Known about the structure:
By secondary structure, the protein is an alpha+beta fold. Helix content is 16%, strand content 36%. It holds the Pfam family FAS1_DH_region. Residues 69-134 form the FAS1-like dehydratase domain.
Amino acid sequence: MTGWEPHAVTTAELVDPAPVAALAALFDNGLPAPRPGDDLPPLWHWVALPRWPVSSELGPDGHPARGSFLPPVDLPRRMFAGGEVTVHRAPRIGETVTRRSIVDSVTEKSGRSGKLVIVVVRTALSGVDGSPLVAERQDLIYREAGATTSGAAPVEPAELARTPFRRTENGWDFATDPTLLMRFSAATANPHRIHYDWPYATRAEGYPGLVVHGPLMSLALAEVLRLDSPGARVTRLAHRNLAPLFCGQPARLRTEPRPGGAALTLVGDAGPRTSLEADYHEEGTLHA
């Protein structure tokens, strides 16, 4: 990475109502769609502030080529590993905010699966008056490619999953299909090919099928708070992607209340896939 240096990118951006409406339609979970002037639900800034890269800047995996904002890591697999979000005041749909992002650190390591690089990106959202809105840390992991496979995905969905959220006696089931992944990629301006290009995902990167977006799994857990605790005012979310979930594999969303918040987990048949810890208070109350 000789010659590359981190640099801050600061932009003024609209909290866009259109992708917010797209995500509400995608979730189709019975909650009213957020409207202009409403507070943005937790983690929905991933959708409301999309950044569409120009086509000439895309790399082989569909993401923008590395070496500009992100470091020139030469490992093919990019994974959204987790992060933490602090909410000072929720952005309102339709308002203009300032976003400042910078790469905070780049760490090279060796793990059980070989060489990996951890890139930490910090982003701050503020109002036009400079007041803090959201402070975020995102952890990205780059790995070596896995062994290629010509087999089918673990579960090949025969039909659409319809709504991804299904209430059960023990919480919620979460269902995915290729159309859901395609719509989420479009709503979040995410061109990463592992989420919609089955031949690329299986042959180039060695996955057994399409990969469910890490942000989609974290958002699904955050959405459970809105479904089960509509009065919760979230102040902090710490999320971690533990293992991939592949398109069509069944998953369950589980919640464990704790003082001042909740611990949530997305669990697949092979174990936990994503965890989320939330600090919040009910409207009219404040936890210590």
